[in-house]
Amino acid sequence: MASLATIGNELYTGKRSVDFIGRRRTWFAIAGALVVASLLLLGLKGLNPGIEFRGGSQFTISGASTLDQQPAYDVLEELGSDEPPRVSEVGNDSLRVQTAELDDEQTQQVQEALAEAYDVPAGDVTSTFVGPTWGSNVTAKALQGLVIFLVLVSVVMAAYFRTWTMSVAAIVALLHDLVVTVGVYALVGFEVTPASVIGFLTILGYSLYDTVVVFDKVRENNVNVLNQRRRTYAEAANLAVNQTLVRSINTSVVGLLPVASVLFVGAFLLGAGTLRDIALALFVGMLLSTWSSVFIAAPVEVELRERRGPIARHTRSVLAARAKARAAHGEENVNLSATAEDLGVGVVAGHHLGVTAQPKRKRGRR
Q1: The pLDDT of residue 336 is above 60
Q2: DSSP 8-state secondary structure symbol assigned to residue 120
Q3: What's the pLDDT at 302?
Q4: Could you tell me which of 313, 307, 336 has the C-alpha nearest to residue 323?
């Protein structure tokens, strides 16, 4: 069995290739299904907003004799609370109880009742109040930051790559990652807190980084695409995706391992809500960004580019020359890569030639 290094080298040289671009309709269908499913989850199940967004009272019980959550439910039920409390473990000996907004008298009653129920001094039960206005401000600022980020990304990428198609493709991949990550939150029911919002915004940068790496190679492979007749724009782009595939996987694994550790520790060992909230967003977002840069961003860019006149005409001319040469040699049923090599008329996506398929570089003067 070939090693990862051998596979990576074969992908880079073109000896081994996966037809990512040629199968873009399949990837678009999968991505569309994920987005639709996420939107349905948001509409039917909705998000689970934390106390910072919905407002309310929060009690923290330190040094509890038991982590059984039922006593907390019983205390709030006896008080006659209309909204069921949210009880969660914090560390090894603490509990957090979140309720609807309580007045001062009710807060005092709950503190004393929780202290008695969990056999701790009254001073070990602390209470805080969070108003919904603060959460609304956080949401507004997050949306404002998202819009500014997307605008700046579009402008910078259009200037850097000198084409709007890569900007649009990158934004499509970013929105896909964001929507599906939010859908995962709706599915698992984790609370959406300011830490989650930070995680959502963080994954945008990671997704953009991975996409830029792929696009940079696409641009390099297609720098003189209109001046040759060996390959189409889509075929050179597919080679670029294959060349950056191992790098994207390695980068994702290195990034996901520590995030997965934080998620495991926060969700199962410490019960720390902040760690769990931000780690889930980062884990899902980083995983999706690797998928989107390969299966969404690059295929969308090729789809947009092939709708433009020069690239469309060049693609038609390359395919026509290839078909003419194939017909002239009477080899309609031979292997595509062999035909390209024998006739010297180009390479077919998913069937590259090896080092001969690499873009030619100009040698610098010594």
Answers
A1: no
A2: -
A3: 92
A4: 336
Biggest alpha carbon–alpha carbon distance for the chain: 93
Question: In this predicted model, which residue has the larger pLDDT, 365 or 308?
Answer: 308
Q: Which domain holds residue 276?
A: 19-49+134-307
Res 26: pLDDT: 93
Share of the chain above pLDDT 70, in %: 81
Site of tokens 């995680």: 199
Q: How many CB atoms lie within 10 A of CB 351?
A: 20
Token pair 């998913």: residue = 350
Contact 127, 111 (CB under 8 A): yes
The 8-class DSSP code of residue 347 comes to -
How far apart are the C-alpha atoms of 366 and 362, rounded to whole Å?
12
The letter for the amino acid at 51 is I
pTM of the model: 0.73
Rounded to 5°, the CA angle 360-301-208 comes to 95
Q: State the Cα–Cα distance between residues 334 and 25, nearest whole angstrom.
A: 26
Q: Do 221 and 259 sit in the same domain of this protein?
A: yes
Please state the φ and ψ torsions of residue 58, each to the nearest 5 degrees. Answer: -130, 135
Give me the count of residues in the chain: 366
| Single-letter amino acid code for the residue at 162 | R
Structure tokens at 349: 């996506």
Say whether both 285 and 338 belong to one domain: no
Classify residue 266: in a domain, yes or no. yes
Give the model's pLDDT for residue 334: 41
Gap between the Cα atoms of 282 and 266, Å rounded: 13
CATH number at residue 77: 3.30.460.30
- Over range 353-359, report the average pLDDT: 50
